[in-house]
Amino acid sequence: MTRTSKLNIFLSTLNFVLCFVGYQLATSLFLPVSADLEGISRTVTVPYRAFALFISLLVIFLNIRKKVGKIHPAMKVLWIYWFALIIRIFYDTNIRIDVHIKDTVQLWMYVFGICLPAMFSVMISYRFIDLDKALKWIFLGVVLTMMLSLFNNPALLMHADEITERMKGNLALNTISFGHLGTMGIVLSLFILSRGRVSTIKKIGLIAVMLLSFFIMTRAASRSPIVALVVILLFWLFARGKNVVLGVSITAVAFGLLIVFIEPILNFMGNISPTMEVRLRMGVYEGYSSGRDVLYQEAFDLFLNNPFLGKQFALFDNFGGFAYSHNIVLDSLMGLGLLGGIAMIYILWIAIKNSYAMIKNNDPHFWICLILIQQIVFNMFSGAIYYNQLLNMLLTFVFLYYPNNKPNKNRITIPLQKVREKSLT
Questions:
Q1: Comparing C-alpha atoms, which of 249, 242, 246, 255 is closest to residue 360?
Q2: Is 345 exposed, middle or buried (0-12, 13-18, 19+ CB in 10 A)?
Q3: HSE-CB of 416 using CA atoms within 13 angstroms
Q4: Which end of the chain is less packed: N or C, by CB atoms within 10 Å?
């Protein structure tokens, strides 16, 4: 294997890993929890974004002439969706005269500097990503980020009775993203444990990471990470069932136990974070959505206002600001009309279907699907597709990896590692 080939594998793997935990680790290393200096977070986030973009461009340069392989129709739909979304955003921010949107530089940076480069670079380099090494790097990055957060934020170690607010990781890592970092730590730890052949010392270490991750997730006091964890575990149980009936039965029993023991679960979480307990109780017993129901209704009304072409890509206020609806399907309906909504539902359905098949077939890398499910849940409650690099990258990866690696009884399956080695020679 040549040096260029080794460099390609290293950079492709690094590019993949950075999408998972690069931002979180970089900001935890160099940023405090709070600061009085305006814009201090940009001294870290801007150089990091530039570095991550540079890595993506290098990967594109090294792989631009290589064959991509079989492309699932959902991948094509995703690119068409993005093309239409860019046109919609450009029209709303530059051509429409009835609205005036300020500060769109960051939005375009996310689109062309963060999301699209990650998608395209992974699309042409997925065969050269060392997924075993990527798992180790991502897991280590998650653990380091959580450990650094404990040192940087003394409030995380306060007694539960003293906690009166949600906790964030640092100045640039908000409570929702911080909570989802904890969810990722739990999911990856469970996956590694489930693979077997783990020494006793490693098992103890993994259990310790799970406990730390649960502590971080609970102290962050954001509800979508908890919902994501429950959905992932139920989806995992369902997919691993021998058949659909068994899967449904296991999921129903697990969900029933969750309902029966909801009070002890809430009380236990209250011992770690009273804020989390209060927020969960409000959501479970009162249906409190932190104002999201208003956003959902406004987005749906905008869709009904122009159901064929969509009305606008985001919710606009009277001061030049904009906000997403906190639901990627509603965002699609609002911005691109019925066709956009159908396209997004199709994209998510194929992603879930492929994830189910990979878990069902016990693919050695189905941990990627578990994180994809997490990101889908995240963006059904707290995000927008044009701000989520990881979701776009994972959709791209699964749409390419599964069609080119799914089991086929009529042929001999060649391991991905062998394919990579053959492509590099």
A1: 242
A2: middle
A3: 21
A4: C
Q: What is the DSSP code (8-state) at residue 315? A: E
- Residue 371: C-alpha distances to residues 19, 48, 137, 225, 254 (Å): 12, 23, 15, 12, 20
Q: What is the rounded CA–CA span in Å between residue 88 and residue 85? A: 5
The string over 289-325, giving b where at least 16 C-beta atoms fall within 10 Å of a residue's C-beta and e elsewhere, is eeeeeebeeebeebbeeeeeebbbbbbbeeeeebebb
Q: Are 281 and 274 spatial neighbours (Cβ–Cβ below 8 Å)?
A: no
Residue 315's beta-bridge partner residues? 323
Please give the model's pTM, rounded to 2 decimal places. Answer: 0.92
Give the closest residue to 212 by CA, choosing from 169, 233, 183, 236. 183
CA proximity to 219, closest of 153, 138, 148, 135: 153
Q: Which two tokens stand for residue 300?
A: 């749906």
The answer to whether 308 and 336 have CB atoms below 8 angstroms apart is no
Q: What is the pLDDT of residues 195-222, one digit of tens each?
A: 877 888 999 999 999 999 999 999 998 8
- Residues 390, 375: contact at Cβ < 8 Å? yes
**402: Cα within 13 Å, side-chain hemisphere:** 26
Whole-angstrom Cα distance, residue 268 to residue 272?
Answer: 7
CA angle 78, 81, 85 (to 5 degrees): 140
Instruction: Name the residue among 112, 180, 106, 105 with its Cα closest to residue 142.
Output: 180
Q: Quick check: 398 and 369 in contact, CB under 8 A?
A: yes
Residue with tokens 């749409």: 399
- Residues in Cβ contact with 322 at an 8 Å cutoff, skipping those fewer than 6 apart: 101, 313, 314, 315, 316
Helix (H, G, I), strand (E, B) or coil at 281: helix
Please name which of 410, 396, 424 lies closest in space to residue 15, comparing C-alpha atoms. 396
Identify the CA nearest to 12 among candidates 115, 120, 108, 93: 120
Residue stretches of the chain with pLDDT short of 50: 409-415, 419, 425
The confidence score (pLDDT) of residue 317 equals 86
Q: Which of 24, 218, 9 is nearest to 138 (CA)?
A: 24
SS (H, E, C) 202-233: HHHHHHHHHHHHHHHHHHHCCHHHHHHHHHHH
- The Cα 294–Cα 301 span in angstroms is 11
